[in-house]
Amino acid sequence: MIIISIISIVIYMVAILMISTNTYEFKKEQKIKIILIGIIVTFVLTILICQMSSSSIKVDANYLKIAKKAAILLFAPINAILFLPYIGNVLNQYKSERLNEKQLKKRIIIIFIIVIIMIAFEIGYIKNFEIGLMKSVI
Predict the structure, then answer these.
(1) What pLDDT digit, counting tens, does each position of 5-59 carry?
(2) CA pair distance 54, 9, nearest whole angstrom
(3) For the chain, first and last CA: distance in Å?
(4) 98, 106, 112, 134: which is closest to 41 by C-alpha?
(5) What is the DSSP-derived secondary structure letter of residue 56?
(6) Which of 39, 32, 49 lies closest to 9 in space, CA to CA?
(7) Which residues contact 77 (CB under 8 A, 6 or more apart)?
(8) DSSP state string for 14-32
(9) What is the pTM of this model?
(10) How does DSSP classify residue 34?
(11) What is 61-104 written as a DSSP string?
């Protein structure tokens, strides 16, 4: 679990660097808010996805708990690195007035649709990940 935690931290650091780079129009305090809110939202969303994916797995609760933790530690930063830099870039373009409000809404809707599609695929993928992880341990 220590190796997974280290990998997670490294991926989060890369995500933070990418988000910070893509929000160059914002002040430091605003960047920190964007990063923190984005990471918290992706973390909570990943926890919900892991809960949904593991709800139908029938195995010892201790093994399932470890598999969920591993899945959350790996997939939360991956989700952050997939979506938050792009969202930061969209917000940056809006702040620098390269996007108007209508274009911003359109991009937010597109991001939302992509996130919904990603959740549908990720539920099955994380379920398979958890099952595979538990099979290799048991």
Answers:
(1) 999 999 999 999 999 999 999 999 999 999 999 999 999 999 999 999 888 888 8
(2) 24
(3) 16
(4) 112
(5) T
(6) 39
(7) 8, 11, 12, 15
(8) HHHHHHHHHTTTS-HHHHH
(9) 0.86
(10) H
(11) HHHHHHHHHHHHHHHHHHHHHHHHHHHHHHHHHHHTTSS-HHHH
Tokens of 20: 């910070």
DSSP-derived secondary structure letter, 138: -
Distance, CA of 36 to CA of 113 (rounded, Å):
22
Determine the length of the chain. 138
Looking at residue 55, the DSSP 8-state letter turns out to be T
Could you tell me the residue ranges of all domains in the chain? 2-137
Q: For helices 28-54 and 2-22, give the axis angle rounded to 10 degrees.
A: 140
Residue appearing with tokens 């274009």: 103
Q: How many angstroms separate the CA atoms of 89 and 103, rounded? A: 13
